[in-house]
Amino acid sequence: MLPGFLARAVETLLGREGRSLHLKAAGWATLVLVVVMLLGSWAVIAAEDGAERANLTSYPKALWWSIETATTVGYGDFYPVTLWGRIIGSVVMVVGITTYGMVTAALATWFVSREQKRHRHLAHEAHELCDETARALHERFDRLEQLVTGKGERA
């Protein structure tokens, strides 16, 4: 069940047809973030292995740490103590900040484009109404002109 779900989720995020560039970029960034968090969790355990005062000693703890770091929450309950652990933490943090920025930009672009489409639709309807009103006015003026010049029929 899970692999099918993941395949559908990846297809939804990265689908080729009908997706705008900003949504594809946000999808790829999200995928990269997940991979970086999973690999970063494993790498930080390897980097912290045997270090004095190391508190990232298991994969679940390291995964929680990578989620905290990528989202910049940083509770401080887990943190790397070695140089390589801190470098890995910096990579996870930068990728997380970048991804959330891209996702936020994609959402903002989506909202703005919806509003622009609505505005264009309303403007088109207003233009059509204006054209229709102008045609009706021209017809009325033509009839009035015919009545005034005596060429029109009186009922």
UniProtKB/TrEMBL annotation:
Q: How does this protein sit in the membrane?
A: Multi-pass membrane protein
TM ranges are 25-45, 87-112
Protein's name according to its UniProt entry: Voltage-gated potassium channel
Q: Name one GO cellular component term.
A: voltage-gated potassium channel complex
Keywords of the record, alphabetical order, are: Ion channel, Ion transport, Membrane, Transmembrane, Transmembrane helix, Transport
Question: What GO MF terms are annotated?
Answer: voltage-gated potassium channel activity
Q: Which InterPro entries match?
A: K_chnl_dom, VG_K_chnl
Which GO BP annotation is one of this protein's?
action potential
- In which compartments does the protein localize? Membrane
Q: Where is the Potassium channel domain?
A: 33-112
- Tell me what organism the protein belongs to: Streptomyces resistomycificus
